[in-house]
Amino acid sequence: MSTLQIGLILPDVLGTYGDDGNALVLRQRARMRNIPAEIIPIRLGAEVPASLDIYCIGGGEDAAQTLAAEHLNSPAGAGLRTAAESGTPILAICAGLQILGESFRASDRIVPGIGLLDATTGSLGKRTIGEIQSTPSGLPGLTAPLTGFANHMGATILGPDARPLGHLTRGVGNLDAHTISENPDAAGQERAEGAVQGSVIATYMHGPVLARNPELGDLLLAKALNIGIEELEPLNIPVVEQLRKERLA
Q1: Residue 150, phi then psi, degrees to nearest 5
Q2: pTM
């Protein structure tokens, strides 16, 4: 069996919120099923290989986010676009979501994204910090509620080619009431959380999100292995289920 290669995009600049843990979760859940797996860190200045099996990109502050966007928009970042075009799964968190969109606001300027998501990001009325929950709506195969921790100022409006990852049931997701009242393009998206388009799955949920949502992790693993999620050997980890119950309570 060949080794599953998990690309960790720019952990040196987008590692602020512990989202590197998503790659660790993918590797561990693969190894627990006797699937060899390794993490390939891709740091600032290095070329992104197009040949990996799955990619994870995390969150960071404005300056780090801008650096990451500039890198991924350069020839060195072209491999990520090639991977997306070939259907390789990509998980993007918070700043990663914004970078993969068309544009985002960082401090006082608009920065071009890399255009893998039909989404633009401005600013919320105030920073959102706290627990969020949603009902999955954008991905066949996901049935369990999604839970995470949000900490961002981004107001993300999805275009017609993207769909929400989930329908928000608690907390603030892509938008808040201020954004909706100020921007008519946001009508109907007040309960949207995250985005799904092609092979990209994006969310504002930290946690890390895959530690808190093992079904989402297994769906990504199945996509990377080109199998159905039902073909993965079930994992019985009582402590994970207990922690989920506490978070969802």
Answers
A1: -100, 145
A2: 0.95
